[in-house]
Each structure stands twice: as C-alpha cells, then as structure tokens.
Automatic annotation (TrEMBL):
UniProt cross-references to InterPro entries, sorted A to Z: AMP-bd_C (IPR025110), AMP-bd_C_sf (IPR045851), AMP-binding_CS (IPR020845), AMP-dep_synth/lig_dom (IPR000873), ANL_N_sf (IPR042099)
Protein name according to UniProt: AMP-dependent synthetase/ligase domain-containing protein
Family according to the record: Belongs to the ATP-dependent AMP-binding enzyme family.
The keyword Ubl conjugation is assigned to this record: no
Chief location of this protein within or outside the cell: cytoplasm
Keywords, comma-separated and alphabetical: ATP-binding, Ligase, Nucleotide-binding
Gene from which the chain derives: Vigan.03G101600
Any GO MF annotation of the entry: medium-chain fatty acid-CoA ligase activity
C-alpha cells in the first residue's frame, strides 16, 4: 500500500483542554459547579476560565512557566485546572497539608512564577516563601483566593499579593484565544508525589498523557453523560485522578466540598443526588464507621485506590448501597491504569468471596498498553497468585519523567518499562494483586511477608478502624511485624496487645503475626488518606531492637 503521511488535518495535538469548549457548547445551561450557595453553568465556567487565563497572561506568565495552586476542592481549584494550561503555563497543584518547609522546597524546585493561595493557607504559603534563601532572586507572584465560608480568614490583598482571584477573573478577556500546545508531548502538569515517602519527586505529564488517562477513566468506570460528581478526592492529588477534565467531557456537575466530613458527605449525597465519587480506602472506612451512616436512597458509584482495600471494608461499604470499583495507579500515571474489571458471574458468589475478588487491583485499562509482574532479571513471574515480583507497565498514560532528576527517571525507566516499585502477583485469570510496596516487604527470619496481608486480617477485627504494619528491628529474626492500630470510638472494652496477637495467631501463619502492637488515636496519613508508613517505620526503628519473640 502507498505510504501515506500525517498532515495538519489529522495530527492536531491531543489535549484535554478542548473538553471545556465542547461542554460549553453542548451543556451550556447545565450546572457545572455547585458549592454552598454558588452554582455555575458550563457556559459560565468556560467564560470564567478564559477570563482568568487572559489575566494570568497579563501578569507576564508565558508558555512553559510553572503556576502553582494551594487550595482545597472549591470552585477556583476546579477552574484553575483549565485556566492555567489555557494560558500555556504548566499546572502545579500542591498538597495544602504539607508543612511550610516542604512547600518552600517544591516552589523552588518547580521555579514557580505564580501561586494561587486559598485564604485558609495564606500564612502557610507566606511562611514557605520566608524560607527561600536570601540569594534566591525569583520569588513567585501571589494571588489570594477568598472564600466566605472560612471564618476569620484574612482576605485583604496586602502587599504580598498582586490581586485576588475574582479580581483577576473580572479583568480578563472572555474572548481570549487559549494557548494550544505546539506538540501533544509538551508538558502540561507538574505533580509532586504524595508524601508516603519522605522525599517527593516532581512528576511531569504531557497534554497527550492527560488526554488519554481522562478518556480512559470515563470508559473504564463507565461514566454516563451528566454524572453528579462529589469531590471527596482532593484535586491536588494527581489532579483528582484527571477527573476535572473527564467531568467536563461528560457534561457532569461538580459538587465541591472544602473539607471531608462523613456527616457532610452523606448530606451532600442526598441533597444533590450524587452518582459518583472517589476516595482512598480510608474514606470508605470513615463512611462506614460514621454515626451518620445509613443505607443510601439510591446507589452511588465510588472508585477507590491508593492502597489495597481490605475485603472487610469493601463489604461494609457495599452493604450501605455504594457500588465500589477498585483500581490502581500512581502519580506517575496521572490516574488509574489498572482496574478490577467485574465479571457478571462473580455476582453469584457469596458476599465475602465477592469482596475478596474486588480487593484485587485487576487488569490494565484500555488506555494502558501492557502491565506485567516481573522478577529480578525482568522475566514474567508465574501466573499462580503466589509468585511475587515488581509491577511494571508501559503506555501513553506514563509520565514524561521526573523534573530535574535524570537519575531517578533512568532508575524507573528500564528495558522499555516503567518500574513502579510495587510488589505484586499475577493470578491465573490474568488479574493483578498488589502485595506491598517494595520497601514495605518485611523480611523476618529469611521469610518475606506482606504487610498488606497482615493488615487485611487486622481490619477484620471488629474493634479496628485503621491498621498499618511495618518492620521493627529484631536482633535474632532481623525484622518482625509491628502493627499500628486505631480503634473505634466508644468501645466499652478495648482489646489489649495480647488480644490482637491472639486474634492474628488464629488467622495467619505464626511468622506473620505482629510481635508488637501499638495503639494510636489516629494513624498519620497523607491528604488523600494514604497511611504514611515511612513515619511509622521511623517510630518502630526508634523503639529499638526487640529481643522478645512471640511465636
């Protein structure tokens, strides 16, 4: 056949930014954003984003500049996911629960030119800027986002801030021609890893990658037209798994909420007829353990990821009327690229078996080319659900690389694959199951044991709300499992350390049983609910080597 070549007519760069233009055309009078007493339509959101992009450009922000945002899930946060790249800039959402030192490091590493600051984070960001070295000449401009719902917030636009958010919107041109990428490989997003490790890295994604993962999530989750989406997942975590652009593509309604509170979430679900929401497994635990929980009036689809969810938690969540979908992704994939695709025949199984199957991560989504589990020399492990290896993948959703870190990029890109650092098994039916992060595997007496498996059993204890298992040094065994637990409130009789250990001995091999149990009111977590095991490992290490062996 004749060799035909691409032309300008068929090689327009892929970008998710055009989804907003389309939404304004088709769903112009449909509510796009609902927050407290504020409601915008898609036509209004489109106009506001163009005005803001125009105003950003007027501040001297040019193609390739990094613009950061420190804000919760409020309307401004949603609009900025379009407005910043509309101006040709690279969008950098920052976790607002980080400390000032870490935010300072991120702003300097990203070389941010402009920062949008929520009024509740004003002091935090100003403190972060005060930590800049004196010789650091480029300090970012600041724009203040006001919010009437924040009590006693300082919303004055002092000398530290060049303008307010709404001030910029009012000054912008609604007919602004947004800056299209020259190449679909142009960087669009800069995300920093979420903080389960002590040193976050800057992950760079292209327009092409964000386009693919946005569409991929809609297809895999079977999101219908005009969903009612509740923002329980922070947008600053991997851009809300790329759903800001996906919800625009589907003409849905974004229900914004400043802070996660189970009682408020149940109220918003009922008031707004919510159909979809996302969250880490800890969000499921909070919903099921809330005193406000009661069976839903209509099903709500909830997508969970971030850590392997215990089967017990999945079962409790679905008993309330939530339809749980489970997936797996990383900051480096900008969203979920593996999902536990459900088979109709599984509906005939007992509830406990269904929950166990749903706890697996699953198979690659349609937008991810390949996913595998490999051994030390890159060979595929046996598909027997037992042979352990590192999870690798390749496809269009994988990041361009780590900012200013060629060594880190090279270490995870090997032999044509992205090495995730997660340990898993492949089942005979082709479904993937995570067993642990490579650094979380505990080696006790030469035996590798999965902290995730131990945690799953601990979650089955009726008194346990949160569980995390890490290694504690042991002079004889090398390492032994140390369990950190938080218990349900209002218990008449709390279990002791011996009670928990006895419970575990009845349900797992003795070498896997925690030798130490530590009770805490709440386990340290990232903003998205991931338990920060690196902090718990530090605590376990500081406890010193354990001589006692409970066998």
């Amino acid at each position: 056949m004749e060799q035909l070549k691409p032309s300008a007519a068929n090689s327009s760069p892929l970008t998710p930014l055009g989804f907003l233009d389309r939404a304004a055309t088709i769903y112009g009078d449909v509510p796009s954003i609902v927050y407290n007493h504020t409601t915008f339509t898609w036509a209004q959101t489109h106009r506001r984003c163009l005005q803001l992009a125009s105003a950003i450009s007027s501040l001297g922000i040019r193609r390739g500049s990094v613009v950061s945002v420190v804000a919760p899930n409020i309307p401004a946060m949603y609009e900025l996911q379009f407005s910043i790249p509309f101006a040709g800039a690279i969008l950098n959402n920052i976790n607002l629960r980080l400390d000032a030192r870490t935010i300072s490091v991120i702003l300097r590493h990203a070389n941010s030119a402009l920062v949008f600051v929520d009024c509740a984070s004003r002091d935090l960001v100003l403190e972060a800027l005060s930590l800049f070295p004196k010789h650091h000449t480029q300090r970012p401009l600041l724009v203040l986002i006001a919010d009437d719902s924040v009590e006693n917030a300082d919303v004055s636009c002092s000398g530290d801030f060049v303008d307010t958010y709404e001030g910029l919107v009012s000054k912008g041109d609604p007919n602004f021609e947004w800056v299209r990428p020259i190449s679909e490989w142009d960087p669009m997003i800069l995300n920093y890893t979420s903080g389960t490790t002590s040193s976050p890295k800057g992950v760079v994604h292209s327009h092409r990658g964000i386009f693919l993962v946005s569409v991929d999530t809609l297809i895999d989750w079977a999101v219908p037209k005009r969903p009612i989406y509740l923002w329980t997942l922070p947008i600053f975590h991997a851009n809300g798994w790329s759903l800001p652009w996906g919800i625009a593509a589907s003409g849905g309604t974004n229900i914004c909420v400043r802070k996660f509170d189970a009682g408020i979430i149940y109220s918003l679900i009922k008031r707004n007829h919510v159909t979809h929401m996302c969250g880490a497994p800890v969000v499921l635990s909070m919903l099921t353990n809330s005193p406000d929980n009661k069976p839903l009036e209509r099903p709500v689809h909830i997508l969970t990821a971030g850590a392997p969810p215990p089967a017990t938690v999945l079962h409790r969540t679905e008993a309330l009327g939530f339809v749980v979908s489970h997936g797996y992704g990383l900051t480096e994939t900008a969203g979920l690229v593996v999902s536990c695709a459900w088979k109709e025949k599984w509906n005939r199984l007992p509830a406990t078996d269904r929950a166990r199957l749903k706890a697996r991560q699953g198979v690659r989504t349609v937008g991810m080319a390949e996913v595998d589990v490999v051994g030390p020399i890159g060979e595929s492990v046996k598909r027997d659900g037992v042979s352990v290896g590192e999870i690798v993948m390749r496809g269009g959703c994988v990041m361009l690389g780590y900012l200013k870190d060629p060594e880190g990029t090279a270490n995870c890109f090997k032999n044509g694959w992205f090495y995730t650092g997660d340990v898993g098994v492949m089942h005979e039916d082709g479904y993937l199951e995570i067993k642990d992060r490579s650094k979380d595997v505990i080696i006790s007496g030469g035996e590798n044991l999965s902290s995730v498996e131990v945690e799953s059993i601990l979650y089955g204890h009726p008194a346990v709300v949160e569980a995390a298992v890490v290694a504690r040094p042991h002079e004889y065994w090398g390492e032994t499992p140390c369990a950190f637990l938080s218990l349900k409130a209002g218990l008449k009789e709390k279990p002791s350390e011996d009670d928990i250990i006895k419970y575990c001995r009845e349900k797992m091999p003795h070498y896997m049983v925690p030798k130490t149990v530590v009770f805490k009111d709440e386990l340290p977590k990232t903003s998205t609910g991931k338990i920060q095991k690196f902090l718990l490992r530090q605590i376990a290490k500081e406890m010193g080597s354990s001589m006692q062996s409970r066998m």
